[in-house]
Amino acid sequence: MENGNHEIPENANEHCPGPQSESAGKSDACEGCPNQQICATAPKGPDPDLIAIAERMATVKHKILVLSGKGGVGKSTFSAQLSFALASKDYQVGLLDIDICGPSIPKMLGLEGQDIHQSNLGWSPIYLDSNLGVMSIGFMLPHPDEAVIWRGPRKNGLIKQFLKDVHWGEIDYLVVDAPPGTSDEHISIVQFLQASGIDGAVIVTTPQQVSLIDVRKEISFCKKVGIRILGVVENMSGLRQPVLDLKFERSVKSEKGTVVEDVTEWAQKYINKNAPELLSLFACGEVFDSSRGGAAKMCDDMGVQFLGKVPMDPQLGKAAEEGRSCFEDKKCSSSALALLRIVDQLIASHE
Residue 319: which H helix or E strand, with range? Predict the structure, then answer.
């Protein structure tokens, strides 16, 4: 695959500042790099690719980054459902997956196995609907199990190529799904989009402190690089599902020891006969410890907006696995309304 990165050589050290940087060949990151002497003496000047990116992004009205300092918090699920929701409101939407090593967006939009095509205008996104286009390295892998083992410069080069060469056309929203952390990919996307502007970032977390510790770092990163924080979403905020969807088990002692027996059918018949009013209720429980205030308390401490809570909903997980919108049917009754309230706030912030 063509690297497309005219700034950083593929054989450069991981935290290469770039040949055009004033510190090129002089910083600690340059020690031992085979290009050190060349970079130190090369003439400096503006990166022509940044001009190309600004021209390409001129047709994109709003750019939203979806970030999280912690992995496994449902960031890609949120990015996918945010894109579905915006498209359902008749906006023209692009979804860009820059999680180079773990691209899950093709799966979550039901686009696995699709191939990217080129035209005289550039790379064409894969379209789920006429107003929802998607781009991901997942479309470029020869096999879904293929591992992407790249150093930072090559990952940065592909992100630049996505921004420079993908022809989105006139779109209202570009949603960028980023990997967890505050590493090369995050620095690159901010640097590359700086000229054309970033509306802001939505930060996704789960309620427990082990997640919030990393998310605080992500908020700090946004403040340091000048990204507006549109708000924080507390995902997996308690388990909430209809009583009818529950499974029931009981422990039974036998000669082989204690075994678990599925008694769901019996329990549902018993409830239906003796307490049918329970069938319209939701069963709720705390999966993660939120005793210290969760994301709402963190937002209050750090002076950022709290967008709301999305409960852990098995039906939402199923929708993501099947690559479909959770808003199309009433199966995601626990999560869809919460997500729509958050989406409406994000839209309002751009009006």
Answer: helix 314-322
